[in-house]
Amino acid sequence: GQNIDQPTEMTATEGAIVQINCTYQTSGFNGLFWYQQHAGEAPTFLSYNVLDGLEEKGRFSSFLSRSKGYSYLLLKELQMKDSASYLCAAPNSGAGSYQLTFGKGTKLSVIP
Amino acid sequence: EAGVVQSPRYKIIEKKQPVAFWCNPISGHNTLYWYLQNLGQGPELLIRYENEEAVDDSQLPKDRFSAERLKGVDSTLKIQPAELGDSAVYLCASSLDAGPYEQYFGPGTRLTVT
Question: What are the two backbone dihedrals, phi and then psi, of residue B61, each rounded to the nearest 5 degrees?
């Protein structure tokens, strides 16, 4: 399985930039996912990184360093609606095995 | 396209009672997942289906939990008998196939066992 660690809570100001970090330990690697989950709602897909580097998608970007077992989600121009939990998830290793192990999530609060 | 549908959205039962949850995945998605999510935690996989075959049920407490996916489409998850510790949100998700594909989650069933 995977061991995934991310901060429990973060607070940032509307209009600012915030970086949510995720570290993982794995015996194999099949990429890393980020999901967003608003309170009381289902997780929704944000990004999937399998190669090192930064992938940008609008206001959200995700970075991966496989050698360091490290990823981050970067949110720019924060809006109040970005207040949510952000879940880092990694597939288990093993051929054909794509069971996702989720971190506990980082609860982001955006304040005016 | 319609998303993953789950019912009921909320369920309150007394301990030792049975309960069942239903999930209809996105049309054409072969892989279906049931997750359990406790407050402040990430989802934890209970069981994964590829078509009608359960290919990963190592996390399913088989003494009280059961699941089925007849005809490889809809799925039901059952708990009998329910315990207080089963109170959680039960999420169903589906993906196009087994692999590093995006998983689409349903809204979940919030179970409260009293």
Answer: -70, 95
State CA A74 to chain mean position distance: 9
Contact residues, chain A, for B106 at CB < 8 Å: 42
What's the CA angle centered on B22, arms B34 and A99, to 5 degrees? 10
Give which of A89, A102, A87, A92 is closest to A30, Cα–Cα.
Answer: A92
Q: Classify each residue of A81-111 as buried b or exposed e, where b means 16 or more C-beta atoms within 10 Å of its C-beta.
A: ebbbbbbbbbbbeeeeebbbbbbbbbbbebe
Query: Distance, in angstroms, between B64 CA and closest chain A CA?
Result: 22
Contact criterion met (CB < 8 Å) for A100 and B41: no
- Give me the amino acid identity at B80: Q
Q: Count CB atoms within 10 A of the CB of residue B12.
A: 11
Cβ contacts (< 8 Å) between B30 and chain A: which residues?
Answer: none
Q: What digits encode the pLDDT tens for the residues B59-73? A: 899 999 999 998 889
With an 8 Å Cβ cutoff, are B102 and A97 in contact?
no
Residues 7-26 of A with CB under 8 A from B: 8
Are residues B56 and A41, on separate chains, in Cβ contact within 8 Å? Answer: no
Residue-wise pLDDT for B9-45, tens only, equals 999 999 999 999 999 999 999 999 999 999 999 999 9
